[in-house]
Amino acid sequence: MVTRGFTGRPQPPDTAKRLAPGQHLTSDFPVLSAGPTPRVNLETWTFTLKVGPKPVAKWNWAEFNVLPQTEIKRDIHCVTTWSKFDTVWRGVTVDDILEAAGVDAPTQFMLAHSFDDYSTNVPTADLIGGKGMVATHFGGKPLTSDHGGPARLLVPHLYFWKSAKWVNALQFTETDTAGFWELRGYHMYGDPFREQRYTGDP
Ligand SMILES: Nc1nc2c(c(=O)[nH]1)N[C@H]1C(S)=C(S)[C@@H](COP(=O)(O)O)O[C@H]1N2
Ligand SMILES: [Mo]
């Protein structure tokens, strides 16, 4: 508990509520990647929607960029304990990707795949209904490569490792399938407000 006037800086009234437990606020934008930033060429870039092993839709960069775009402002929470408020993203919502593909969510689980062989699982319900997007812009500018450009998944209400950088596919899976960090001890769901950091956290 912070007692105003005795400890630390007074925080704006909504900060405490918006800051997930165990997190601190940062104003910069740290870069966190398991490996080096992959070189992604826009000429050969593709994004594929799959149902199990079967590709059901595929876009090249020009095709992807004429899909409807949505801008959102959200707080993000990294499991390494930094949170950043009011980040502004633009991209194509998963709803609009499914709509363009003419696909009605066939399973309850999805797995995102990336150019650096990273993957991460997210329930379908956490990606549709305006909750998830494939973002191409951050703060009004094209997403830089360190932060996952040209395109990354963005699922801001879950820990940031779920927001796969350099994304190149979204796959519907029959069962909830662990991705890169989930296979290495991180939580299958990752709700920052329930502090679901590691396997076994409630
Ligand atoms: N493809 C890919 N996506 C990734 C990662 C990665 O190593 N590869 N790291 C994850 C982790 S652990 C975090 S915290 C965020 C960091 O995003 P940032 O570098 O834009 O802050 O990306 C996530 N997405
Ligand atoms: Mo992270």
- Might you state the CATH topology name? Sulfite Oxidase, Chain A, domain 2
Task: Characterize the largest beta sheet: strand count, sense, and whether it forms a barrel.
Answer: 6 strands, mixed
Task: Say which molecules are bound, naming each kind only once.
Answer: ligand MTE, molybdenum atom
CATH architecture: Alpha-Beta Complex
What does the radius of gyration come to? 17 Å
Structural class designation: mainly beta
Shape: globular
Helix content: under 10%
Number of domains: 1
Stretches where pLDDT is under 50 for at least 5 consecutive residues are: 1-6
Order of helices and strands: HEEEHEEHEEEEEE
Strand content: 25-35%
- Rounded mean pLDDT is 94
Classified by CATH, the class is Alpha Beta
Instruction: Name the CATH homologous superfamily.
Output: Oxidoreductase, molybdopterin-binding domain
| End-to-end separation | 24 Å
Number of helical runs? 3
Describe this structure as you would to a colleague:
The structure is a single chain. The chain has 202 residues and is mostly beta strands. The chain has a single domain, classed as Oxidoreductase, molybdopterin-binding domain (Sulfite Oxidase, Chain A, domain 2), CATH 3.90.420.10. It has three helices and eleven strands, in the order αβββαββαββββββ. Strands 1, 4, 5, 8, 9 and 10 form a six-stranded mixed β-sheet that branches. A hairpin with a 4-residue loop joins strand 6 and strand 7. 32% of the residues are buried. Bound molecules: the ligand Nc1nc2c(c(=O)[nH]1)N[C@H]1C(S)=C(S)[C@@H](COP(=O)(O)O)O[C@H]1N2 and molybdenum atom. Ligand MTE binds next to loops.
